Amino acid sequence: MSSRPFAIRLQNVTQRFRVIQERPDTLRELFSTFFRHQSSYHDFEAVRNASFEVPKGQMLGLIGRNGSGKSTVLKIVSGVYRPSAGTVEVQGSLAPLIELGAGFHHELTGRENILLNGLLMGYSKREMLEREQRIIDFAEIGDFIDSPVKQYSSGMYMRLAFAVATEVDPQILLIDEILSVGDTGFQDKCFERIRNFRRAGKTILMVTHNMAQVALHCDRAILLDKGAIMADGLPDDVIEVYKSLLALEAVGAH
Fold this sequence. Notes:
Blueprint: E1 6-20, H1 27-35, E2 41-55, E3 59-63, H2 70-78, E4 85-90, E5 94-97, H3 110-120, H4 125-139, H5 154-167, E6 172-176, H6 184-199, E7 203-207, H7 211-217, E8 220-225, E9 228-233, H8 235-253
Parallel strand pairs: 3-7, 3-8, 5-6, 6-7
Antiparallel strand pairs: 1-2, 1-4, 8-9
């Protein structure tokens, strides 16, 4: 456990979702199911009893297969989900990049969304107008800044979302696969800004399937599988555990 104060702390966190197994097609089927007391759903635990701390200034990579609970953890930390059990503590201002286009109003222009996002993060109109040109310059989307974002490609969404989230200077940055969209040159520019964030002592929690990015940029990695923490430690060590898990799965499939 680090002696540094924490930015994020999860204690015994579980996140359950109710999964509908079948939907009655007719009113007769609905009543029939009700009177037979048959359950048409089951509870699914996307995250199971997860506990970890992220010290201030650390970059942590969350890795694992699709459906392992990585994105759910980020949404719990960001406050999108309230955990079914356990506690979550976050110390510091937070900027989430957890879903492409999240926080954008599709009918508004990019410029209008810059202001809207800033106001939602607690900044004044004057403060956002001071940041506006820097955000536009970083996003590199040209005249589209004055077009409705519903016309944007996924790459343009990512550029603007990343530019806004990092220009408002949060203490904690959450990133969920958003950097997998876009060209290599822009990704390099994003990671240069992330390196500057790290040098400034910011905390970063990143979900990705790119193990090279985890090994290169992260101080630590956590492997999730079926909602549970399987490994927690140095990135290279945790990546090896993940590779072994995938290898065992491949053997079992044959």
